[in-house]
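Table S2 (continued). Query chain:
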Amino acid sequence: MKHLLIISVVFCVVACNDTGTQSPGDTFDRRAMLTSIADSVIVPSYAAFMNRVTECEQACDAVIDAPNSGTITNVRFAWSLLHYSWSAVQQFDFGPAESATGNLAISLGSFPTNAAKMEFYIAANDTSFANFDRDTRGIYGLEYLIFGATGNSAEEVAAAFAANPERGAYLRAVIRDVKRRATPVVQAWNGVYRDAFIANNGTAVGSSTSLLFNEFNKSYENIKNYKWSVPLGLRPGQAGPEPMKVECYYASQLTGWEHKSLDGTRAHFNAIVKTWTYFKAYLAVVPGGPDLIIQTQRQIDTVSNLLAAFPVSTSLADQVVRSPDAAMQVYTELQKLTRFFKSEMSSRLGIAITYSSGDGD
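Corresponding output:
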């Protein structure tokens, strides 16, 4: 009888704890959050990206058909718009973006470009892409082809295409490969995956909230680590700055395009912040969440102000070598923001970090 009484008391304590300490986040409408970000951000951003792919494909075809300064100027502009739209979608690298041959962000967004390997494949007239050299194609492979290795003029790049049909064939193969990889992802988001994404509204590993949160953080850390830390020479094993590893190195070497590396960070960062705003309502209902929102917004503003004021008269590649203080300040503030986006949000929302950034965060 005594044992039965003890069991009854324990059962009552457990049951009371199950109902009495329920986290406010457990009742948050994640389905509504997922619906909103899918319909307001992800689907339209992928649609815009696909439109830019088509426009860039047309501009590439024009270069191949008639390589001259006009078609080169046009394809550079089309590529710039494509690159900007890529910044909006690269963080959604899950679901249909996952592939056995590499996720979309890896397949299309690997940089710095390996110019030597690209030239090898061009000379061999090899457009099969039967290799894992993702730094020889994608968004940044296009950049190398249409800007040239040293900031060449439109006339010089046009002459290279006119003199070498294999170069045009490679350009066509690269943009076709971008389109081939992007098309099924866009189609899936416009079809069954959108509904599956919204329905999978738990918080466990593999849920849509977990996938969104982890890829959002991973993409943010790619800004910090690969767009700033690596060029500054701050990663383990680096002996010093490596300016050729900035994003959009070849475009930024051309007069009038010095700002392009910074443009990439600004667009990518703004897209990350936009996704964070969808987590704000979730944070607002969990313990410590409202304070975290205030702290995070303060640090976001700090980074945004630094990026807005960052000098653009010379390229980022030049600045990391000649005057790195401003770039170091951006990196430092990006590093501070990692804590709020990653560990603090993970703790407050109870969402596990499922990737490793390799930098101790």
